[in-house]
Each structure stands twice: as C-alpha cells, then as structure tokens.
What we know:
The chain is of the alpha+beta class. The chain has two domains: 1-67, no CATH class; 69-143, no CATH class. The chain has helices at 32-39, 76-79, 84-98, 102-110, 117-129; strands at 19-20, 48-49, 69-73, 114-115, 139-143.
Amino acid sequence: MKTMKTNFDPKYLTKPVTHCLKATCSLAESCLHSLVHRHLPPQSSYVCYDPRLQADGETCPTYLSNRIIRMAKGFRTGIQRVPQKDAKKARQTIRYEMDWGVSTYYEYRSGKRALSPEQQVVISDILHRYGIEGELFDAYIEVYPSE
Length: 147
C-alpha cells in the first residue's frame, strides 16, 4: 500500500470527499479530508466538517487516511474458468456471501463497480474453493478510499 504524506493527487479521487477545515490537527498531513480542502481549487460550495466540533489527532472520528488502495474491476477472468457443472453454484455462493442481488452481482462481475480489497479476498476465497488459481480479476485501479 502506498502512503502519501503531503502529496495529493486528485486523479485518485473517485467520489466527492467531505472537506475538513481544521488546519491545526496533528493528522492533517495524512488525512484525505484535510488534503482535499487544501489542494482542490476553490468552489462556491462544498460539504465540510465543523472544525469547532472535531477532536484533534488520534481521537478524530472523521479521520480518513490518504493511503491509496488497489481496487479490482471485474472478475470475469476468474468466474469464466469455473467448470460448467459448478458455475451456477459458484455464482450463487458469491451472491450469498457478498449479500448481492442479481443486478449487483453482474455490475461487480463486469467491472461497472470496483471491488474493495476486502471484497477481493472473499471472491478469491470462493473461486479457490472451485479450484480456480492465478489471476482472478480483469483489471485494477488505484484510488483514495471512500467515506
């Protein structure tokens, strides 16, 4: 995992992030909320935390690390290698363990939605149960974490 201390690159943002205005916070240099506020161009309006109500440093409940995470896009590569006799059961197992409906399953499978590292572990474990090894995901993207 990459950790960016004072560097900030908006290309890794996939969703709007709540701004933090508390510049005196000891975690400001590694908090995505603070970095977004300091590095993005001024806007007429944005969502922010009230600095008067926020704790400082280690006790801040809104702290969001600026650590870049690797998200997977799609898992057709892995699911298509499941033997035909097990394919339906594998899909059902993924949907059950991930608590996904049919539409959500296909959105993740196709890469329309990105899989978090935790979701990747679950999908990998399920596919390994069916004897599928090697590369399981179609592509990867690096992003800042979402709130």
